[in-house]
Design a protein that fits this description.
The chain is of the alpha+beta class. It has a domain of about 120 residues. The radius of gyration is 21 Å and the shape is elongated.
């Protein structure tokens, strides 16, 4: 084998390893790009990594299941049943109003998924100020779940589910809410 063919084979192997490495670590790249866009409050860059229709449908389904479980778990009076039915009717519009770019960006900064109550303010950048460490769990070749953890969090963590679009582009499609106690 000639020297030039050995160099060509070596270059091909290195290129293949680089492409494979990029593909494998691409969820981390997307997550870091989302966090950077959230910190910079760059909604356009952030929105490139979120599939809002899938995210909303996922949350509507989970919330409906939670409300349905609460409705079926205890004997309820007529007023409680009416309230639960009203809650089910308002669930869709509430989720649609809740899942906005600024809320999802803050969730990625804080590593948790919850609304900010009545004008509650955090640090100037909108984040909790605590460093969030991310654990990524692979679920096959086209799905990963990222769990954010701060140094003081003891609660169950939501799972931010990313699906692969194309070769190495990942989008947030679901937030798996922690099981209620």
């Amino acid at each position: 084998m000639s020297t030039s063919s050995k160099v060509g084979i070596s270059a091909a192997v290195i290129a293949l390893a680089a492409v494979g490495g990029y593909w494998y670590f691409s969820p981390h790249v997307s997550l870091n790009a989302m966090r950077s866009a959230a910190i910079a409050k760059d909604a356009d860059a952030f929105n490139d990594h979120v599939d809002y229709p899938k995210l909303r449908e996922s949350l509507k389904g989970q919330m409906a299941a939670i409300v349905g479980e609460k409705m079926g778990s205890s004997s309820q009076s007529g007023a409680e049943s009416f309230g639960a039915a009203l809650g089910m009717a308002l669930l869709g519009p509430m989720v649609d109003a809740f899942v906005r770019p600024e809320m999802v960006m803050r969730s990625m900064q804080d590593g948790k998924f919850q609304p900010r109550l009545g004008g509650e303010q955090s640090k100037a950048d909108g984040a909790s100020g605590k460093e969030v460490k991310w654990d990524i769990e692979r679920k096959g070749m086209s799905k990963v779940i990222a769990y954010g953890q701060t140094s003081d969090s003891k609660d169950a963590r939501p799972g931010f589910v990313f699906e692969r679009y194309g070769f190495a582009d990942w989008k947030l499609t679901e937030v798996r809410l922690p099981a209620s106690k």
